[in-house]
Amino acid sequence: MCGIVGAVGIQNPREYAVEGLKMLEYRGYDSAGVGFLDGRIKLYKDVGSPSHLYDILPAKINSNVIIGHTRWATHGKPSKENSHPHISMYKKIALVHNGVIENFVELREFLTTRGYCFYSQTDTEVIANLLEYFYLESKDMLKAMVLLKEKLEGSYALAIVNEDYPDRLFMLKKASPLLVGKGKGFNLIASDASPMVNYTNEFVELDDFDYGYISKEEIVVFNKENKKVDKKTIIKSTESFSHDLKGYPHYMLKEIEEIDEVVKRLVSTYYQDDKYLFDKELIKDLKESDHIIFLGCGTSYHASLVGGRLFENFNNISTTKYIASEWAFHPTFPGEKPFVVLISQSGETADLIHCLKIIQEKDVHTLLITNTAGSTLSRGVTYTLLLHAGVEVSVASTKAYAAQVALLALLSGAIDDNKKVVDDLKDTIKVIEYIKNNFKERIQKIADVIKEHQNVFYLGRSFDYFLSLEASLKLKEISYIHSEAIPGGELKHGPIALISQGLPVIVFITDPLTASSMRGNIEEVKSRGANVFVISTKELSKESDSLVVDNYAYYLSGVAISSVAFYLAYYVSLKKGYNVDKPRNLAKSVTVE
Ligand code: F6R
């Protein structure tokens, strides 16, 4: 996790650093800091989000070089000492780091025996000191960086200043993202393009083990073999990085309200003139495979459950669906010709990168479903399909989930040229719009009840169960209420013991096949005192149901009515006074395992 920025030669380094870090807050926001050269290295850092830096930084920064960091704590609690930048013991070098150094304990011992002292609990301070140690020996920063990368195990994107080089910002990366922005009379770096898009649309992507420096005029990069390389510049559209709230009080609300547009855009991107527009090779590959392994984490894993079920039910392809971090340590490749679908909104999730490395050792083709073009994962897979959901800023994923489910449905439709999927998806758009225009007040009333409780249950079967899992995750991550999703049929096998007087139970009933069993489950929990809220479709509804929507194809719950679950989590969190967009302990891009 963590976000980093850096600049050389920019006019207002203070603003670039702080505003840039604000754009990267989705990567972590428990502490933040900035470092620059003003004769000597100066550091300003503290716990809290990057905006707080405006309170502690001098009003004007006279420095050619600046680095900044927003942190999601891994080694050491969020504290001023553990915040980045970290400075080396002899104060020659300061750096910011995104990643995790696996052998930092051995490296710290190595340095301790050579007289180094440490003032934080972080792995990053070890990097600063080790680099200084090599620099003081070699008197050459590039040589020192080569020695450093030979010693470091783990992941790192580093932005480094050295007191002896007032015009250069050094950089080094492995397995964590780092992008260089090319300016006129200045150059920039950052974890992604968002902090830089107001300054340039030309970027240089660094590969693993690349290192070098930027100055006002130059971008100098050496590769894994320590050869100087001419990196090609890529042009990125700057629009897609906009963090404009467009009048909404929170990103989460804005993003929920964009779901209908996102679904429309997906359909028109992947289906035109009565034809699916997916890469023919991809469809052929999927058809020829005899087993599809779906991998994802959190919300993306929940989408993979839907995808797997669709491929099984509609395309008759056997599938397994795994939480990526579970699969990574015991990978299996069933069938003669397996194919792997990785789902990741950010395209940067470390657990999936771990899986991809394992897959790359086999002769197995891969598809990434992501919202982030050019992400780390997309560079290692056979095919990439974009969600075109627009940037998702709120840590809790909403529109990206609906888009993942919609795209998986389209893909399943494309495999057997089943055009009904497209009509079914178009129907969901009306349902989503209806919810947006009619249900928010009623959902707020349900939120008033939920917010008073410590425990909540969600019930559903099949596709409604997959949605329950997602609904439950959303509620717990932003309202800190314990919630569980249970398949209706499993209640009697244990969880029903937890039903008590007044416990809120939210039930989705949208599948004609399972509706009557679900009604039975409702009676079971009601008779034990539960306070039940039912969300159903017209054809399956009862008068007492809380929210009733138009009928839609049962397998599209994740698209049609996920907004109900998202609004509910949103309002509960809001009513409890929490930071909806930035829940505690979380980050949007989970780049550590
Ligand atoms: C929950 C949420 C997370 C992510 C998970 C995977 O709202 O957003 O559970 O889904 O961290 O992230 P991606 O999809 O970026 O791989």
CATH superfamily of the largest domain: Aminohydrolase, N-terminal nucleophile (Ntn) domain
Total strands: 27
CATH topology of the largest domain: Glutamine Phosphoribosylpyrophosphate, subunit 1, domain 1
Largest sheet: 8 strands, antiparallel
Report the sheet-strand fraction: 15-25%
CA radius of gyration: 25 Å
Describe the structure.
There is one protein chain. The mean pLDDT is 95. The strands form five sheets. The chain has an eight-stranded antiparallel β-sheet with strand order 3-2-4-1-10-9-11-15, covered by helices on one side. A seven-stranded antiparallel β-sheet has the order 5-6-7-8-12-13-14, covered by helices on one side. Strands 19-18-20-21-22 form a five-stranded parallel β-sheet, sandwiched between helices. The chain is α/β, with parallel strands linked by helices and 593 residues long. β5 (86-87) and β6 form a beta hairpin. It has three domains: 3-241, Aminohydrolase, N-terminal nucleophile (Ntn) domain (Glutamine Phosphoribosylpyrophosphate, subunit 1, domain 1), CATH 3.60.20; 246-418, Rossmann fold, CATH 3.40.50.10490; 439-581, Glucose-6-phosphate isomerase like protein, domain 1 (Rossmann fold). Helices cover 35% and strands 23% of the residues. 56% of the residues are buried. The structure holds fructose -6-phosphate (F6R). Fructose -6-phosphate binds at residues 297-300, 344-346, 349, 352, 396-397, 473, 477, 590.
